[in-house]
Amino acid sequence: MNLIMLLDMVAQADPDRIAVTTGDRSVSYGELLAMAHELAAGIGSAPVAAYLGENSPEAVALLFGASVAGVPYAPINYRWTDAQIAEALDRIAPLAVLADAGCASRVPDNDAVRHLTQVPGGSVDGAVPDEESPAVLLFTSGTTSAPKAAVLRNRHLVPYVLETIDFLNADPDEAILVSVPPYHIAAVSSVLTSVYSGRRMVQLITFDPDEWVRTVRSERVTQAMVVPTMLNRILDVVEADGLGLPHLRHLSYGGGRMPAQVVERAMALLPDLNLVNAYGLTETSSTITLLSPDDHRTAAASEDPAVRARLGSVGKALPSVEIEVRGPDGVVLPSGVAGEIFVRGDQVSGEYLSHTATEESGWYPTRDRGHLDADGFLFLDGRADDVIVRGGENLSPAEIEDRLAAHASVAECAVIGVPDAEWGERVEAFVVPAEGGAPDPEVLRGWVREALRSTKVPAAIHVVDELPYNETGKLLRRELRARLAVTA
Amino acid sequence: MKTGMRLASVTCATEVMVVRAADVALECGGAPMVEAGTDAAPAGAPASGLDAGTELGKRYVHAASGVQVLCVKPGAGTLSVAGEPLELVASKQLPSSD
């Protein structure tokens, strides 16, 4: 099985069903399949089909068109600089690249990179990709190091769709709002599951909270996925106008740690909404753990602190996925003890163009730190590289951030390790004031000391207007570290 | 039979896509299926006992050979291999996460 077979089936069974809505433009499943073939004809003999641009029906069609041509689809981050784009394309060249109007001039001019154009009426009978064929090349977000090109094969992507989605089971009124950019793994997996279920995809070109809320209402969107930085801003809009989101039934969030306060706020403001927290990585073909709507409600209603804490977890492993937490010596740790998260399952790739990080036994080291509770709920502490080693003690920024964020004067915060002559590293924090709040560093230090050990109290707390995030909501700790390195 | 191939019933409207191929002959309603799009002569109604029908979007598996198909058009016949009916595969539906 390969990606194009998923679209083929839907387009044949119900060609007139709407597949993609972008602004005033709508494309049916039959038209999407035709576009995929016309783009495949444009790919020609190029071994990779790249996409450089914003969300568009063409981006969706090229994912499948690449499969028709028997080559991988490689969406490129259009927010990168021209130099970064050229470097990324160079690493996966030779290739044909489809660029949208805004990005066409940014495609580097060299022999290994060719502009891809749709061939009207075109079609190809390419080599049929098998399950081993690479289907998608996706650059990792690179928050801790330079982006790497992850390889996702048909066997990583297709079984998950077949096993968890019933073919064409979407109600005719179902619509999903896609607001993550095309180069994000959530956008790729969302296209695959939406297509197979026959769901209409409504594309938001770029995220803006007012536009998001307006589109959810006008397009009668029934489900959506957001990253953490989006949710609070959406809730601000909904709270201010009091009009709710009447058609929205499911909202999933992921792509970074979500403060429990934001989840509680969403549940209070939109009590009928089914919330899902999903945790996954590019290298694992997206979701590997889920906190279901029932898990949210059970946790919110519980008097048991251990159950209530699950609102801050990323839920349990999917039935097809195994998770274990290992210590520095590689030994599997019991529940309650934090270490590095390892994952295994059919959808786990862990393979890059340059090397594979997956062990022969199939386990992939996520480089994320966390722990499992007694019932298998996974709690994330952040990237393994973000752990602060102070005087030989490993400190998780997440625990300190959670405490700071719980203070009324704080809207957002970030905790990092700063090189220190005496301790190796010391803890420092950045806080963004809550509306009307005036965070006092001394008060906040006392607030942390009250709940946590004194070693976890930040040596310095910097009050800032905003924190640096990448466009998909990942906190850029390296920028904060660089900021302190400059001022030190 | 090849993965991705579409097979049609000659006894009813059923059409399936091969999700996992195996070296066996698939039947529907008791008669061998043919490659979809070929003009095979209809062979009457499904045989008695092999007329439980197929459901759109459901996967069916023949455990002994491993062959797995997905129903892309429903019909009145039962899918089988050498007269042995295929079993319905239950999907493990998850809350939508993306």
UniProtKB/TrEMBL annotation, chain A:
GO terms for molecular function: ligase activity. It holds the Pfam family AMP-binding_C. Residues 399-474 form the AMP-binding enzyme C-terminal domain. Keywords: Ligase. It comes from the Bacteria. InterPro entries: AMP-bd_C, AMP-bd_C_sf, AMP-binding_CS, AMP-dep_synth/lig_dom, ANL_N_sf. PROSITE patterns: AMP_BINDING. Residues 10-353 form the AMP-dependent synthetase/ligase domain. Belongs to the ATP-dependent AMP-binding enzyme family. PANTHER family: ACYL-COA SYNTHETASE, MEDIUM-CHAIN ACYL-COA LIGASE ACSF2, MITOCHONDRIAL. This is Fatty acid--CoA ligase family protein. It comes from Nocardioides dubius.
TrEMBL record, chain B:
This is Uncharacterized protein. It comes from Nocardioides dubius. It comes from the Bacteria.
